Write a sequence for this structure.
């Protein structure tokens, strides 16, 4: 890896961990079970497939369009890193306090979705799995990528994350029975700690790029 991806020097595992933590498929288990209560196993699998396809499509499209979006709105990558870091940090704080991230869902969205057939698209695909935090993370990573290997690493991590999400949500009943609400909350808090560290890294990297001498040692 070239080292220019935002999680500099951390390697493929850290890139995957960052994307997995912000997508947080385990955290979506309680909402999924609530939304699909009364569905047959086949219907649940269909919903999961739709949610996963939607999530992948959203992240890939925003990743590919990221630089064009920066240019269109005349945004600099350092500014987006700082703003993205702040957004991701708020998501991490919600996770650390055992709350569903406010950027991912609202009670109104969940209640509305129960009455529609598009549960897999919204709120499961958007914003539960591919919300503002995950979109921002992928866009920041892609903005710092250098060469095909970095792009393959980022998009490969997205695909692997959603492959895991598919397995987790298809087996959501078993996952919930084994871990329970408290076990899922503990895992969510652990991923919140990881996200908070990633958010700080984004902000520090953005500040370093925006003001090169900010962290320079005094002469």
């Amino acid at each position: 890896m070239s080292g220019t991806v935002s999680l500099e020097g951390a390697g493929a595992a850290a890139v995957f961990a960052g994307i997995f933590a912000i997508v947080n498929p385990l955290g979506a288990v309680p909402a999924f079970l609530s939304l699909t209560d009364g569905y047959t196993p086949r219907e649940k699998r269909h919903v999961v497939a739709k949610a996963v396809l939607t999530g992948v499509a959203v992240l890939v499209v925003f990743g590919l369009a990221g630089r064009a979006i920066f240019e269109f709105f005349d945004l600099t990558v350092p500014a987006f890193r700082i703003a993205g870091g702040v957004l991701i940090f708020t998501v991490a704080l919600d996770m650390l306090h055992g709350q569903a991230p406010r950027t991912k869902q609202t009670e109104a969205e969940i209640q509305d979705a129960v009455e529609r057939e598009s549960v897999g698209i919204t709120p499961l695909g958007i914003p539960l799995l591919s919300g503002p935090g995950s979109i921002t993370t992928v866009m920041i990573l892609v903005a710092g990528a250098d060469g095909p290997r970095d792009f393959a690493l980022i998009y490969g991590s997205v695909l692997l994350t959603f492959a895991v999400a598919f397995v987790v949500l298809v087996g959501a009943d078993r996952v919930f029975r084994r871990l329970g609400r408290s076990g899922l909350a503990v895992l969510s808090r652990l991923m919140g700690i990881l996200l908070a560290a990633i958010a700080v890294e984004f902000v520090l990297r953005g500040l370093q790029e925006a003001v090169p001498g900010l962290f320079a040692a005094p002469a």
